[in-house]
Amino acid sequence: MSLIEVKDLRKVYRIDQERVVALGRVNLSIDEGEVCCILGTSGSGKSTLLNIMAGLEKPTRGKVLIGGEDITAMGERQLALFRQKNIGFIFQSYNLMPTLTAVENVAMPLMFRGVSRARRDKEAKKMLKAVGLGKRMKHRPTQMSGGQQQRVGIARAFVAKPKIVFADEPTGNLDSHTTLEVMEMIVHMARDHGETLILVTHDKEIAQYADRIVRLVDGAIISDTPNQSIIGREEQAQPEEAATPAKDAPAEEAVPAEAVPSSEMPSPQADDPAPLPDPDAFPS
Question: Is the pLDDT of residue 154 over 90?
Answer without folding.
Answer: yes
